[in-house]
Amino acid sequence: MRFTKMEGLGNDYVYVDARHETIGNPSGLAVLISDRHFGVGADGLILILPSEAADARMEIYNADGSRAEMCGNGIRCVAKYVYEHGIARKEQLAVETDSGMKHLQLFTAGDIVESVRVDMGPPELERSRIPMKGPSGRVVGEPLEILDRTFRITALSMGNPHCVTFIDDVDGFEVAGYGPAVASHPSFPEGVNAEFAEVTDRRHVKMRVWERGSGETLACGTGACATCVAAVLNDLTERCVTLDLPGGELKVEWSEKDDAVTLTGPAREVFTGEWPDSG
To answer: In the chain, which ranges are continuous DSSP H helix?
Structure first.
């Protein structure tokens, strides 16, 4: 099975062109191929499939084999692959995902895609649509007990669930301790991605993330979008911010005009190879 390793700010996945490869058990393959000691090493597996409604379809499997609805960094890499491998040679693409159709603008230099802007659509703010247990309405600055602390959380969906907590010192925060406790909290019946963010000024936010099914990653595109929305809802930033993540910077804007969130960042191909078994 041929594969391509790609990354967006260190949020890395193994990509397989499933138009030409048959994957019998993608969840099982994701676990094996994502292993950083015995496999290729990645945050998960992304399949690029044909679509009758778009230029391509993406399916995402986390490193633990669970299915994910959407990945902001992953879809930028899909766009790069689709363009550079001739699946659709155009700078405006549509990609079908489990969270709906996404439209992307590619910024190219010659034949190379250097960065991609993704229209992520409007955030879902209603509690039941995140989903999160509790009364109807928005979840903004709500107390939530996590281990030995009570956090003020803001929860929303960017096609997948997110729980954002604003803290004073994100670099020194114990993400490995509190992250999995948030991700598996019983208030979130489908689990949740946990973002921990420090606002440095009204246009800049530092963020770390514990991703449901993958653990702490160097970047999370949907998490960056969720953090921007949460910061605006708590009147901490403007609607256009730069997110500083361990893997680098992402730019996010939540439009007041049409409610859409756009995400802009790089995408890079690392290497290609062959895996002995397609699962």
So the answer is: 26-34, 72-84, 175-183, 221-233
Q: Is 27 exposed, middle or buried (0-12, 13-18, 19+ CB in 10 A)?
A: middle
The answer as to whether 135 is a domain residue is yes
- Report the catalytic residues: 71, 220
- Whether residue 244 sits in one domain with residue 213: yes
R_g of the chain, CA atoms, integer Å: 18
Q: How many residues does the chain have?
A: 279
- Looking at residue 20, which CATH number applies to its domain? 3.10.310.10
Can you give the residue range of the structural domain that contains 34?
2-120+265-274
Q: What angle do CA 125, 214, 274 make, to 5 degrees?
A: 125
Kindly report the CA angle at 256 between 251 and 260, in degrees rounded to 5? 60
- Asked if 164 and 83 sit in the same domain, the reply is no
For residue 21, the tally of other CB atoms under 10 A from its CB is 15
Same-domain status, 168 and 93: no
Compute how many other C-beta atoms are within 10 angstroms of the C-beta atom of residue 42: 25
Query: Does 279 map to a domain?
Result: no
State whether 91 and 39 are in the same domain: yes
Based on the structure, what is the number of domains in the chain? 2
> Would you write out the chain's pLDDT as a tens digit for each of its 279 residues?
999 999 999 999 999 999 999 999 999 999 999 999 999 999 999 999 999 999 999 999 999 999 999 999 999 999 999 999 999 999 999 999 999 999 999 999 989 999 999 999 999 999 999 999 999 999 999 999 999 999 999 999 999 999 999 999 999 999 999 999 999 999 999 999 999 999 999 999 999 999 999 999 999 999 999 999 999 999 999 999 999 999 999 999 999 999 999 999 999 999 999 999 766
Residues 85 and 207 in one domain: no
